[in-house]
């Protein structure tokens, strides 16, 4: 009887645990140039991203498993520069491919998916810099 109670308690404890769902968002520069990313908003920031390199933009875990996106809450625009020349500026209301469209799978590609983990990548290409 003791063993049965212990087995029931173990089963209930496993059923009560919700798995964590983890998400990773990276920016990958697949252009032929090194690019400078400038994030303008409440706090400005700058990132130099070499060609064929990536940076992790956001990584988080969520117990609910229903938030497979993140949003730039405090960012007004993102500029992409090459040699101090602005090649592209992204805004929150852009049409087409945009760094702000984290729910759009054309903009942020799902590159890895496991049981409770997903990795999304925004690729900066030569086309984006024209």
Mean pLDDT: 84
Give the strand content.
over 45%
Give a quick account of the main beta sheet: strands, pairing sense, barrel closure.
4 strands, mixed
Which oligomeric state applies? single chain
Give the class from helix and strand content and strand pairing: mainly beta
**Tally of helical segments:** 1
- Give the tally of β-strands: 8
What is the ordering of alpha helices and beta strands?
A: HEEEEEEEE
Written description of the protein model:
- The chain has 130 residues and is mostly beta strands.
- 12% of the residues lie in helices and 46% in strands.
- It has a 4-stranded mixed beta sheet, with no helix packed on it. A 4-stranded antiparallel beta sheet has the order 3-2-5-6, with no helix packed on it.
- Strand 5 and strand 6 (85-90) form a beta hairpin.
- It is globular.
- Residues 7-16 have low confidence and may be disordered.
Secondary structure layout plus pairing:
Blueprint: H1 2-16, E1 21-29, E2 35-41, E3 45-49, E4 53-62, E5 75-82, E6 85-90, E7 108-114, E8 117-124
Parallel strand pairs: 1-8
Antiparallel strand pairs: 1-4, 2-3, 2-5, 5-6, 7-8
């Amino acid at each position: 009887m003791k063993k049965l109670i212990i087995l029931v308690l173990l089963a209930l404890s496993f059923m009560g645990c919700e798995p964590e769902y983890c998400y990773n968002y990276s920016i990958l520069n697949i252009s032929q140039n090194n690019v400078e990313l400038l994030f303008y908003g409440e706090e400005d920031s700058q990132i130099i991203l070499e060609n064929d390199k990536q940076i992790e933009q956001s990584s988080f875990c969520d117990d609910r498993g229903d938030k497979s996106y993140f949003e730039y809450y405090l960012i007004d625009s993102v500029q992409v520069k090459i040699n101090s020349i602005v090649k592209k500026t992204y805004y929150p209301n852009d049409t087409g491919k945009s760094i702000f469209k984290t729910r759009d799978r054309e903009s942020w590609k799902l590159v890895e998916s496991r049981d409770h983990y997903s990795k999304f990548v925004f690729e900066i290409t030569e086309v984006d810099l024209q």
